């Protein structure tokens, strides 16, 4: 078995599901246990300034072995797995020399990954795939990223004949609950720019993501015995459904793709007296994003006009912004990743991220940070899988980026 696979299997066993409800950092204790292990490994590899802080951020530096100054590059991956699906007792399965047919993940429970549902599987005929046993997610998001970075930096440390500048490493907690950058100490990290290894399939290279807001709208009604309710009852659930009906019907996740934005209704909780809607608002274009937010304000005003002041209350917060505006001025860092991929035989696919990454927040914190593929598919569920070759190629891309930075400067 190759090194990156071994490392991935090891990390996959750690139970690091994050939890938005605990209010702690890291949000769950399992992440700290993995962090301790990663810190130990970085020390064993021989990195300098290895640290693990109280929030679970693991950092280390492989010092430059050049006598000239070259840019300090960083690589970042996250330790937690998504709370959307169980990450406990992950039991990876190997499909060797994949033949292109449906994959039975769990014969007892008859859980089958069908090619009809996941046609991308066809791209990996002849390769070795790692899948789940159907009962958990795999956690290739983002333990594959950790394994790839760890493998690359270990290789560099063991091959001092390869010339490189300083390589800065950070493993972060709680990316999946949107808090991965919260306590990231950019100054301590010390890199000029970085890459997150947190993308999907082989070739992905990303430097654009959504502008993102969260909106909570609370509608107040008035409850009266239904037999005597005429002209007295105000049903907050019905006001809420009016509000929902006024939003553009095409602008929802299930009807949009590419650069199209959306408003996504996350939850409804309602009674006659009180109804709460939770939305996320997403758009790549800043102007359109602001227009979407304005529409929420206008629609709340309309409810208040129709049913009285105080009927609808809007709480809306920005979550993150499109990193493109921070990457464009240093576009060469995308070009280097692009060239690195080409040189190791990977076709780059520059696609916008229909979500956020730690990298978008980090970019706004002063660390420009595009995203590179980690290699997996179908994140956050039982059909998650990763081809071994994609992990190996991600290692090659990291090594090539480091090499190009040393040569070009
Ligand atoms: Zn991820």
Average pLDDT: 97
Weakly predicted, low-confidence segments: none
Q: DSSP helix count?
A: 10
Spatial ordering of strands, largest sheet: 1-2-8-3-9-16-10-15
- N-to-C order of helices and strands: HHEEEEEEEHEHEEEHEEHEHHEHEEH
Rg, rounded, reads 24 Å
Strand content: 15-25%
- Please state the structural category: alpha+beta
Number of strands: 17
Largest sheet: 8 strands, mixed
What ligands can be seen in this structure? zinc ion
User: What proportion of the residues is helical, as a percent range?
Assistant: 25-40%
Short description:
The protein has 409 residues and is an alpha+beta fold. 31% of the residues lie in helices and 22% in strands.
Structure description:
- It contains 10 helices and 17 strands.
- With 409 residues, the protein is of the alpha+beta class.
- The strands form 4 sheets. The protein has an 8-stranded mixed β-sheet with strand order 1-2-8-3-9-16-10-15, with helices on one face. Strands 12-13-11-14 form a 4-stranded antiparallel β-sheet. A 3-stranded antiparallel β-sheet has the order 4-7-17.
- Helix 1 packs across helix 3.
- It is globular.
- The model has no long low-confidence stretch (mean pLDDT 97).
- The structure holds zinc ion (ZN).
- Zinc ion (ZN) binds next to helix 3.
What secondary-structure arrangement, pairings included, does this model have?
Blueprint (H helix, E strand, L loop, with lengths): L2 H10 L16 H17 L2 E5 L5 E5 L10 E6 L14 E3 L7 E4 L4 E3 L15 E3 L8 H19 L8 E6 L13 H4 L3 E7 L4 E3 L4 E10 L15 H11 L15 E9 L3 E10 L2 H22 L4 E9 L3 H4 L4 H12 L5 E2 L7 H7 L6 E3 L11 E3 H21 L1
Parallel strand pairs: 3-8, 3-9, 9-16, 10-15
Antiparallel strand pairs: 1-2, 2-8, 4-7, 5-6, 7-17, 10-16, 11-13, 11-14, 12-13
Bound molecules: zinc ion (ZN).
């Amino acid at each position: 078995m190759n090194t990156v696979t071994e490392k991935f299997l090891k990390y996959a066993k750690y139970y690091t599901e994050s939890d938005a409800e605990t209010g702690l950092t890291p949000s769950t204790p399992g992440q700290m246990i993995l962090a301790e292990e990663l810190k130990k490994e970085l020390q064993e590899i021989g990195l300098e300034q290895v640290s693990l802080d109280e929030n679970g951020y693991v950092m280390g530096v492989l010092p430059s072995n050049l006598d000239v100054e070259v840019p300090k590059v960083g690589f970042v991956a996250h330790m937690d797995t998504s709370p959307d699906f169980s990450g406990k007792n992950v039991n990876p399965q190997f499909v060797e020399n994949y033949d292109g047919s449906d994959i039975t993940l769990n014969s007892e429970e008859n859980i089958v990954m069908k090619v009809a549902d996941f046609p991308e599987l066809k791209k990996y005929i002849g390769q070795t795939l790692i899948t789940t046993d159907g009962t958990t997610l795999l956690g290739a998001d983002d333990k594959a990223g950790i394994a790839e970075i760890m493998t690359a930096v270990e290789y560099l440390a063991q091959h001092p004949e390869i010339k490189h500048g300083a390589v800065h490493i950070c493993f972060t907690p709680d990316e999946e609950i949107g808090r991965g950058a919260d306590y990231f100490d950019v100054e301590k990290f010390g890199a000029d720019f970085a890459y997150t290894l947190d993308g999907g399939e082989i070739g992905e290279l990303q430097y654009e993501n959504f502008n993102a807001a969260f909106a909570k709208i609370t509608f107040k009604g008035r409850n009266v015995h239904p037999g005597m309710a005429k002209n007295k009852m105000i049903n907050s659930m019905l006001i809420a459904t009016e509000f929902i009906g006024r939003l553009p019907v095409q602008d929802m996740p299930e009807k949009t793709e590419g650069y199209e934005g959306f408003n996504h209704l996350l939850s409804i909780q309602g009674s006659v007296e009180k109804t709460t809607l939770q939305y996320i608002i997403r758009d790549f274009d800043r102007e359109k994003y602001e227009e979407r937010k304005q529409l929420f304000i206008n629609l709340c005003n309309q409810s208040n006009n129709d049913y009285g002041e105080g009927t609808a209350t809007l709480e809306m917060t920005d979550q993150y912004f499109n990193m493109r505006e921070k990457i464009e001025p240093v576009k060469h860092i995308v070009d280097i990743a692009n060239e690195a991929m080409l040189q190791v035989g990977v076709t780059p696919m520059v696609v916008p991220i229909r979500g956020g990454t730690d990298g978008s927040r980090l970019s706004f914190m002063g660390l420009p940070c595009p995203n590179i593929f980690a290699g997996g598919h179908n994140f956050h569920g039982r059909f998650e899988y990763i081809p071994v070759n994609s992990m190996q190629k991600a290692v090659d891309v990291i090594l090539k980026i480091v090499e190009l930075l040393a040569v070009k400067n």
